[in-house]
Structures are given as structure tokens and as C-alpha cells.
Amino acid sequence: MTDKLSICDGIKLMVTIIDRGKGEKVTDICKENNISFHLICLGKGTANSEILEYLGIGDTEKDIVMSSVPEDRATSIVRELSKKLQLDKPGNGIVFTIPISSVAGVVTLQLLTGLMN
To answer: 40 — phi, psi (to 5°)?
Structure first.
């Protein structure tokens, strides 16, 4: 089991938070890059309406897309998502990666690395 879990050393969890309904665009770009594991969750911001108005942020409903990506390709995929979805502009979303080894729980780790029986 430990040998199999060492596979996660070369995998990152990429998290993209984007306006509701745009999660499919994220998965389409990932599929073009041969990234096949995706999970889209529905999210909602917690800031109150006064703060949202001040910041010029409208809708707080978001798609949270989680994908497992090879570490050596993570940077290029993040750049492509940023470019195609204009994530470098305020209010359009965010994408980041974390090492899968940072995810707590053996069952979660097995699920994300495809080692679940």
C-alpha cells in the first residue's frame, strides 16, 4: 500500500474557483490536456452584500473544480486556464495547486490517486 501511495508524490490537486456554470469550461481545457479526473462542486461566497458591492463583485455562486494533474504539467495547465478563462483579471476566478500528499486521510488520497479498490 505504501508503495502505491508514493505515486502521489508526482501528482497535484488543482483547484479552480470560477463563476457558476463555467466549471465545464475548466474540465474541457483539462480534457484537451489529457487530464481526466475532475470533480465539480457548487460553492457560495460568504461575504455580505455591502462588501460585495464595494468590491464590485456580483454573483457569489461558484463552481469549484478539483482535478488531479501531474506535477510536471501543473504549471503549464494553470497558465493555460489563466489565459483562456482570463483568471488574471479581478473577479474572474482563481486557480491553484497543492501537493496531493498534503491531503489528509488515506481514503481521500486513494480516491484522488485512483488507487481505490
So the answer is: -105, 120
